[in-house]
Amino acid sequence: MKLSVPVRRRLLGAVTAAVALGATLVCTATAGASSSNAPSVEPDHAMGWSIRAHEGVAGKPAPSLLATQTPGLDVSHYQGSINWATVKANGAKFAWIKATEGTSYHDPYFSQNYLAAYNQGIIRGAYHYGRPDVSSGTVQADYFASNGGGWSRDGLTLPGTLDIEWGTAGEGGDCYGKSHSQIVQFILSFSNEYHARTGRWPVIYTATSWWTECTGNTGDFSSTNPLWVARYSTSVGTLPYNWGYQTVWQYADSGIFPGDQDRFNGDYSRVQALANG
């Protein structure tokens, strides 16, 4: 169900260009990259920014669904400076923090958030915003693993996540100008390279309708990659192709925690099990 409210997207550094007298003032969004030399085809996105327009109204999960689920969150620099002691006091048990996007963007708040969450004893991991229009999945997995997306068996580090969702018109449209097989190949090559680099399969964050549209329900990752599904509703709904259950459910874009609100499908021991591999 598509929302009537605007897509939640915060643009960085809007550029204005005035044309001849009496012409319309045109505003265009600049790329939210870490330097002015970064390619304009690679803007900075927050996890789930495109989900809201496609996946229904953000809501609270029914209480019965929360009994065996563990609360957590995901954040990027859009949340600014976060008081992780308060996040912990409010009950968060896990978090994923944006590290990278494409092949050159590194979130400026990643290191701060990653260390602060760790110091509070919150099990945390990094996520990478996938851009199939920029490079292969192999190249992006290497960039991610080398820039905060690694994994260690310290009990507080989750495997990295590939965030894959709708693109914009400037990025080639919903599916980044790629065929079903090309999208599947991007995900597969990212997954394989991340596994080769870290020994862990990455979590895949996506939405069922994007998966249907852009993979054509081809490619089966259910036996290797944990699923993190986004659906802003009171139930998780139908899952992407061949996954029998979700590991994590992102159910709202605001709530008690900064950023997006998530539920791990199981008690805290299951979060620990994922962290420990």
TrEMBL record:
SMART domains: Glyco_25. GO terms for molecular function: lysozyme activity. Its EC number is 3.2.1.17. It is found in: Secreted. Residues 1-31 form the signal peptide. It catalyses: Hydrolysis of (1->4)-beta-linkages between N-acetylmuramic acid and N-acetyl-D-glucosamine residues in a peptidoglycan and between N-acetyl-D-glucosamine residues in chitodextrins. GO terms for cellular component: extracellular region. The keyword Disulfide bond applies. SUPFAM superfamilies: (Trans)glycosidases. Belongs to the glycosyl hydrolase 25 family. This enzyme has both lysozyme (acetylmuramidase) and diacetylmuramidase activities. This is lysozyme.
